[in-house]
Prior knowledge:
The protein is α+β, with helices and mostly antiparallel strands. The protein contains two helices and two strands. The chain has a two-stranded antiparallel sheet. The relative contact order is 0.19.
Amino acid sequence: MKIKINLSVDGERVKEDVVEIPDVKLEELSEEEIEAAAEAVVRRWADRKLSIEWEVAEQE
C-alpha cells in the first residue's frame, strides 16, 4: 500500500512524500488494523521529518 503524504503550513503545501507498507504485511489485517498501521507509518514519517524550533522574541 502506498501512502501519499502532503504537509502544509499555514495552508501552503511545503512537502510531499510517498511511503509504502509492503502488501504482504497487510494481508491478514482487518480494515481497522490497516488504518492503524497507516497512521503509525505516517506518524513515524512526521517524527523523522518535522522539527519546530522557537525562542522568546521579546521579554516584558
